[in-house]
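Data deposition worksheet. Section B asks for the primary sequence of the deposited chain exactly as it was used as input, without tags or linkers unless they were present during the calculation. Section C holds the resulting structure in token form. Section D is free text for depositor observations; keep each observation to a single sentence. Incomplete worksheets are returned to the depositor.
Section A, Depositor: J.P.
Section B:
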Amino acid sequence: MMKMGNFFLAIALSFGVVQVQAEPSVVAQAQPDRINFHQVKHIEKRPIIALVLGSGGSRGYAHIGAIEVLEQAGIQPDFIVGTSAGSLVGALYAQGKTASELREIALAMKASDVRDIRLDKKGFFDGQKIEDYVNGLLGNTPLQDLKTPMYVVATQLKHGQKVVFNYGNTGQAVRASVSIPSMFIPTDIAGLEYVDGGLVSPVPVNIARNLGADFIIAVDILAQPEHTQTHHVWGLFNQNINIMQQHLAQQELQHADIVIQPDIREKAHIFDVSSREKIMQAGHIAAQQQLSNIVHVLNHKQMSSSEKFQVFD
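Section C:
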């Protein structure tokens, strides 16, 4: 016989009074791609647009400003590739969050939402809160079910291999992609450890091209070495990373059709609300400056004159 509590729960569910949050999906995985973008291009006779969102820590808020400009221009990517900070913003955008909603999320985020201190010989942030935070905002939607195909780049720690997650637990994939070595404990997925995707592909343009993109808009938010303070140990450490990432990024950025590079010189704190506004604005300005080029190149690639884009003042 059904217990009274269960009985009322069943009635509530039948009328949609109670909503049950789905459990996180299976672990993040890199599976053969389900979408053949080359075929999509052939059938729909139009260029395939990819948005590539790079790594850069707190500068990741600039991605929101860039997305805002593209959204206002009616430019919608066919798929998104994100690494580190770009994977977090990209995942939310891929689920259908508007630029305005992304801005609200960014300004509302608190340190306690994503920061979980855990002293360990491999790091002092666990990363589970980031996974839960992303999955909570997405309703635990797995990567393969996001509204826009999303590809999350991480680094398999033991062999230093680039891994592109496109299936399973979205929050877990993002957690792996943002796990800065020595700060975050590596993310364990099926017995393997993963860390920040920016180590191997800070602006993953080549992945987008290999997936079948004809038109790639890359947002590069890396710190510029010439603006990095090097008069203390932490600055020198950052500079080492900045120089290595710059060389890696340049090798890929030359294959992008458009590169958006926000001017962010000062080191902003990720939880400083005023800095978030400034960084988002920097992304907006940089994208706005490139908009006419974006429209020009995209229209050149269009196969049908009826699908031309326009720049509106």
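Section D:
Confidence is low (pLDDT under 50) at residues 1-21.
Residues 64 and 102 are 7 Å apart (CA to CA).
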